[in-house]
Write a structure and sequence with these properties.
single chain, alpha+beta, 7-stranded mixed sheet, globular, disordered N terminus
């Protein structure tokens, strides 16, 4: 049997009470949803040639964004990493310690692709940026955007907005309004 000191037991009880009494996180504008269980997020890009789905990792914390896809030896064709920018900002990326070429897709707040850097070279230290505030940056396997005909101006959604027919357990949804023609 494990015995806890009175001080440790009191501290654990206080933490438990604080956790139980804390307010729940406010729901996202897109409806209350539980945190994502799988660690992957669907991203859909609509191009002139069709719709393309990716299931990507999310670099949501500053530490995850700093590491990104560094030291990876391979990346599947329909995977990648999404770097959400909340609030939107002018993001700058480089390839230091990245072993594989990547396509970097910079996404405007309206959901269109602002800038696409194709085949960013491994280990390159030159910064890559769209030069404007973006809602996110999506990194894909190098050359994948060209294979699928993905280009600047194409539209991007993620989370429940990318796959409205699927039940998604995430509060990370990106549903920009489609402009009326």
């Amino acid at each position: 049997m494990i015995r806890l000191s009175p001080l440790l037991a009191s501290a654990l009880l206080a933490i438990g009470l604080l956790t139980a009494c804390s307010s729940p996180k406010p729901a996202a504008d897109n409806g209350a949803q539980a945190p994502m269980a799988s660690g992957r997020l669907p991203v859909v890009i609509r191009t002139a040639k069709g719709t393309h789905r990716f299931d990507v990792e999310i670099a949501a914390t500053p530490q995850a964004q700093e590491k990104g896809l560094m030291f990876r030896k391979a990346l599947d064709a329909n995977s990648g990493m999404l770097f959400p920018m909340d609030p939107p900002r002018t993001a700058s990326f480089w390839m230091k310690d990245t072993l594989i070429p990547l396509d970097m897709v910079f996404i405007h707040t309206d959901g269109t692709i602002a800038f696409l850097k194709s085949e960013a070279q491994p280990y390159a230290r030159e910064p890559v940026s769209a030069g404007v505030p973006v809602a996110a940056v999506l990194e894909l396997r190098g050359g994948r955007a060209a294979e699928l005909g993905i280009a600047e101006g194409d539209r991007v959604n993620w989370g429940g907005c990318a796959v409205p027919g699927e039940k998604r357990a995430t509060d990370l949804n990106f549903c920009p309004a489609v402009p009326h023609s």
